[in-house]
Design a protein that fits this description.
Number of helices: 5
CATH superfamily of the largest domain: Glutaredoxin
Mean pLDDT: 89
Largest sheet: 10 strands, antiparallel
CATH architecture of the largest domain: 3-Layer(aba) Sandwich
Low-confidence stretches: 3-35, 38-51
Structural class: alpha+beta
Number of strands: 18
CATH topology of the largest domain: Glutaredoxin
Distance between the termini: 12 Å
Helix content: 10-25%
Order of helices and strands: EHEEHEHEHEEEHEEEEEEEEEE
Length: about 375
């Protein structure tokens, strides 16, 4: 779950939401609506439509649907899902949202994915369209490239769910992964309030695969880390980072857990690092089942081949979905790549990725 503001503010906000949006007896969708209080503190009054549904007019475009408004959604139960296509937390939430959209659409549920970008390349409509097709995401998508919808909802996290009743009132909110049973009970409850019948108590049980598989919490001891100097941590190459300047880096022979380094000619800017010339490497010691890397060619249409090693060897059975057993892959578009999915026991491992030519741009590591 990625905060867009200072971490302390975001955590406090989530704690407040948990208290405001507390529900009673969620196992029964027929329970009275009093169990679902309003959450007015979430909303920006200057951008809310009558009834409390924040405006969607800030969308810069729509995918899978003509433009939707709070007014023409009256009478429908609406689930708003804030996402960005490189976010591993959202990818692991998606199987549930996808199944809810399919299961409850006949009863009056409308799911809207609000795509609010984190990185600059996620502001490009064609990139979002490609991601929505490849992942896939089939329900309506509002492109929020200027973050106007994000601000209208007062949102702080990817992913974040907002549950809006048929009268246009935000009734519940959840940030981050998890609590899927509670979220589905809220959907059921709101649909029953709106007059839907024959909704049973059964819940969905998706089987997430690849990047959508649930995380291995027991062995997850590495946190998301950025490559750009604006938010990175634990960089161990000798001499540190040179801000916005091309420089030759070397990787230490040993890296402590959750520390990393560069080798080769790189320019590190606030949000990413670009390999300027020749062959370049990144090394990272991590402790998790899965390792993902947000990266891609710095110039659209180009391709950069790479090779992945785990403790100095090809990954073999531990290869992620974006490399083969020899660790060979191609960065052909800017997105999240799953490079390692360990089988069996999980411990501290040294990951290395070697780019076989210049022109790759690397943004962030995430783990699962």
């Amino acid at each position: 779950m990625r905060p867009s503001k200072l971490l302390t503010v975001a955590i406090a906000g989530c704690a407040l939401l948990a208290a405001i949006a507390g529900l009673a007896d969620l196992s029964n969708p027929q329970v009275a609506s009093a169990a679902l209080p309003l959450v007015p503190a979430l909303l920006s009054s200057s951008t809310s439509s009558p009834g409390g549904f924040p405006s969607l007019s800030g969308a810069t475009g729509w995918l899978n649907s003509p433009p939707l408004t709070p007014e023409n959604l009256r009478g429908k139960v609406v689930l708003i899902d804030f996402w960005t296509f490189t976010c591993i937390n959202w990818r692991r939430e998606l199987p549930y949202v996808r199944m809810w959209a399919e299961k409850y659409q006949p009863y009056g549920l409308v799911v809207i994915g609000v795509h609010t970008p984190e990185f600059e390349f996620e502001k490009v409509d064609a990139n979002v369209r490609r991601a929505a097709t490849d992942i896939p995401v089939g329900y309506p998508i509002a492109l929020d490239s200027e973050r106007k919808i994000w601000r209208a909802f007062g949102n702080q996290y990817w992913p974040a769910l907002y549950f809006i009743d048929a009268k246009g009132t935000v009734r519940h909110h959840h940030s981050g992964e998890g609590d899927y049973e509670e979220s589905e009970r809220v959907i059921q409850r709101l649909l029953v309030e709106a007059g839907a019948t024959d909704i049973g108590p059964e819940l969905v049980h998706p089987k997430g695969r690849g990047a959508e598989a649930p995380p291995d919490h027991q062995n997850l001891r590495s946190a998301e880390n950025y490559i750009g100097y604006g938010r990175t941590e634990n960089f161990d190459s000798p001499g540190g980072l040179a801000f916005d300047k091309r420089r030759a880096y070397t990787v230490p022979a040993r890296l402590r857990t959750n520390h990393w380094g560069l080798a080769g000619e790189w320019t590190v800017n606030q949000h990413a690092a670009v390999l300027d010339d020749g062959i370049g490497r990144i090394a990272y010691t991590f402790h998790a089942r899965d390792l993902h890397l947000v990266m891609g060619p710095s110039k659209p249409g180009s391709r950069v081949r790479f090779r992945v090693l785990l403790d100095g060897q090809p990954p073999g059975e531990h290869a992620g979905i974006d490399v083969d057993a020899q660790g060979i892959g191609v960065a052909a578009e800017q997105r999240m790549y799953q490079l390692i999915r360990q089988r069996g026991s999980v411990g501290d491992r040294r990951f290395e990725i070697e780019f076989l030519g210049p022109g790759v741009e690397v943004f962030a590591f995430s783990f699962g």
